[in-house]
Design goal:
alpha/beta, 8-stranded parallel beta sheet, 9 helices, 38% helix
């Protein structure tokens, strides 16, 4: 409805004609919605955050799918940009508390949908946006890294799911110096690290997938928070291929050696104080998923965690909650330590009796 108001919009972007390998992500919004069927307000308490995002201040609305042509990518880009601008320009029900526009969360679709979203967010927030990008791939590639001998650059093919952040940086949409990649592990172009040089010019910090072995999930969280802070507007973009294809096979460009679903969730919970103004879950392609729909389930969980963080931050700003979640987690860890200590004490007693 054109007069419907919301604090957080869930938006389907069934678009996948900018991919470089396997298509099918246009069916991602449908599969993620189906996988989220068990997310309800009466059973929506996120025990990791000690918070229910569906039973707090925010009006969360599924706005349906953007009508996007599969025949003309230039027109599709315009359709998506105008849709995000229209939805993001609406007043929010909580306008008496905040002057911020609604938060826009997208169910993709291939990753190119991030470009029209960033164009809209830049207009709505009047500033470049910091990007937190979970992905196996850089997606800051110069379009020439996808060579075409049939058309000169710039061409319509410059807009694809591996170049959209390069285009966004070129347009000044991304804040240079605070943006971050996490989970990288893809092959690069050519014979050297030239792709990383291009990425450096766009101001991204790179966290490789293998870094989790040395830093742990908390180390990844600390790097992200130190880099991005808690005040700058952030676009949180999650390509499902950040996960290992053994756990999330339903995607267009799978790369072995990714993170586990639990590791990603742990990191997402650790960065809950970011100022998220928009986000997405992209590249879910159900035609490559297994019978258990593991990839779609992971995508639905990612959106649930992002929703939790956005609503929880708003609840803290409104004084509706304190630090109950942190206190609960500390209490639970102390309980587990006490149980473990008790078992150790019992073992010592048994060993002592055996010696006697």
């Amino acid at each position: 409805m054109p007069d419907e108001l919301f604090d957080i919009a869930l938006i389907g972007a069934p678009f996948d004609t900018a991919v470089s390998y396997r298509p099918g992500a246009r069916f991602g919004p449908r599969s993620i919605r189906a996988a989220s069927a068990r997310q309800t307000s009466f059973r929506g308490f996120n025990q990791r955050a000690a918070f229910n995002p569906y039973s707090s201040w925010a009006r969360i609305l599924d706005c349906g799918d953007i009508p996007i042509t599969p025949f003309d990518n230039a027109l599709a880009l315009r359709q998506m940009t105008e849709a995000y601008l229209e939805l993001g320009s609406r007043s929010v029900p909580s306008s008496s508390v905040t002057t911020c526009p609604p938060v826009l969360l997208t169910l993709g679709g291939d990753h190119s949908i991030a470009l029209p979203t960033l164009r809209a967010l830049n207009t709505l927030h009047h500033t470049p946006i910091s990007v937190l990008h979970f992905d196996a791939h850089l997606d800051t590639w110069h379009p020439n890294k996808y060579p075409s001998h049939w058309s000169p650059s710039p061409a319509q093919s410059d807009f694809n799911h591996g170049s959209m952040f390069w285009l966004a940086s070129l347009e000044g949409l991304i804040h240079n110096g605070t943006s971050t990649h996490a989970g990288l592990r893809s092959r690069l172009s050519g014979t050297d690290f030239g792709d990383y040089d291009d990425d450096d010019q766009q101001g991204f910090l790179r966290i490789e997938a293998d870094d989790i072995d040395d830093l742990g999930t908390q180390g990844i969280v600390d790097l992200i928070m130190r880099r991005m802070g808690t005040e700058r507007p952030v676009y949180l973009s999650v390509d499902i291929d950040v996960l290992d294809p053994g756990l999330a096979p339903g995607t267009g460009t799978p790369e072995p050696g990714g993170w586990t679903t639990r590791e990603l969730i742990r990191i997402l919970r650790g960065i809950e104080r970011l100022n998220i103004v928009g986000g997405d879950i992209v590249e879910v392609s159900p035609s490559y998923d297994g019978m258990g729909e593991a990839t779609a389930l992971a995508g639905a969980q990612v959106i649930f965690e992002i929703l939790t963080s956005v609503v929880l931050r708003g609840a803290r700003e409104r004084g509706l909650v304190g630090e109950e979640g942190a206190a609960w987690r500390i209490k639970e860890k102390e309980r587990l330590r006490a149980v473990l200590k008790g078992e150790k004490d019992e073992k010592v007693d048994r060993d002592t009796k055996d010696e006697l």
